[in-house]
Amino acid sequence: MERQPNVHQHPAGAPAHPHEHEHAHHPMHQHHFDDMEQQKDASSFGMWVFLIQEIMFFGGLFVAYLVYRHKFYGAFGAASSTLDITLGTVNTAVLIGSSLTMAMAVNSAQLGKRMRLIFFMLATMFLGTIFLGVKVVEYSQKWEKREIPGASFCFEPQGARCSGVSEKQEKEKWNEVIPRYLTGGWGHPPVDEAENTAEQPNQHMPVREGAGHGPTAPAEAGAGQASADPDLAESVGATERQRSMPGAEIYFDLYFAMTGMHALHMIVGMALMMWLLVLAYKGVFTNTYFTTVENFGLYWHFVDIVWIYLFPLLYLINRKH
Questions:
Q1: C-alpha separations of 190 from 136, 152, 167 in Å
Q2: 304 and 100 in contact (C-beta within 8 Å)?
Q3: DSSP 8-class letter at 161
Q4: What would the DSSP string read from start to end of 262-309?
Q5: Residue-wise over 154-174: b if at least 16 C-beta within 10 A, else e?
Q6: How many other C-beta atoms can be found within 10 angstroms of the C-beta atom of residue 207?
Q7: How far apart are CA 58 and CA 304, in angstroms?
Q8: pLDDT in tens, 36-55
Q9: Contact indicator for 102, 318 with CB cutoff of 8 Å
Q10: Annotation: CATH topology of 71-156+245-321
């Protein structure tokens, strides 16, 4: 018996369904995927795999922090107390706000609202810029106070103030630092009035009173301090870095490593947002194609969540009130 032709088959390889041709030729459909749904699933899976390895990367830093926090409990608390909690709180609020604007951007892409998508992505970039600007202020403060790990590192050597760091500088608040930076005062921290007077010869003063030494203070600073306090005689000739509180430099190593890598992820994210803005302006994202924006939203939320952990670990561990 002769087989009857299938009524659902079309000659010359024509699609069996009227919408199949449309799906196969979606402008953003990559040839190595069967359809747009498979392409979206593969893209989302790849993004989650990437985020898992990011979790492992930051996880190693968190483990190192916990180990050394246990070993140098007092030093970590003392070093943490030097961070400006106001700036840290502002940055936390800014990032939470950026998560909201990023979520609204994803929603706009899903609805195919191009101008709304552009607006919320620009808002996210604006908040990210504020965050990075605050970190620049915090890093600059640490540089001026010689709390950057390295040869010139100094953190309360033997309970005294580091040479070249005035008492007025130590008490300077963020609302005084930012105006100073904006008026060209970066690298020129305030000095005590007494330090502007002429130096008096043959006067042995501890480092607490001695200022004017550069970031690489000579060993004589330690000798002068030792002559004022016999208990410090054994530290004569040691650098301020060697006399600093044990474990404090490790705290700042981790502080700059963790916050620096977080800031780098934000910089990369903002660069990607610029690329997404160009695509959004060209009308690439519609209510049928928004996977790229959705995946980037996952990345940005991950970066925000990392900061939610960094803030209490670095800023709040020694706060009593």
A1: 19, 20, 9
A2: no
A3: P
A4: HHHHHHHHHHHHHHHHHHHHTT--BTTB-HHHHHHHHHHHHHHHHHHH
A5: bbbbbebbbbbbbbebeebeb
A6: 27
A7: 13
A8: 676 777 778 889 999 999 99
A9: no
A10: Four Helix Bundle (Hemerythrin (Met), subunit A) (1.20.120)
Domain borders along the chain are 71-156+245-321, 160-243
Query: What are the pLDDT digits (tens) for 116-164?
Result: 999 999 999 999 999 999 999 899 888 888 888 988 888 876 667 777 7
**Selection from 30, 47, 50 nearest residue 39 by Cα:** 30
Contact 257, 61 (CB under 8 A): yes
Count CB neighbours of 312 within 10 A.
12
CA atoms lying within 13 Å on the CB side of residue 138: 25
Full-model pTM: 0.74
**Pair of tokens at residue 221:** 């600073």
Per-residue tokens: 136 = 């620049």
Give the residues across from 289 on adjacent strands.
286
- Between CA 86 and CA 315 the distance in angstroms is 10
Which burial class, exposed, middle or buried, applies to 137 when counting CB atoms under 10 A from its CB (0-12, 13-18, 19+)?
middle
Residue 288's nearest CA partner among 46, 51, 25 is 25
To which residue do tokens 């070093």 refer? 79
Which region holds residue 310: left if phi is over 0, alpha if psi is between -120 and 50, else beta? alpha
CA distance 315 to 306: 14
Q: What are 227's two structure tokens?
A: 């002559």
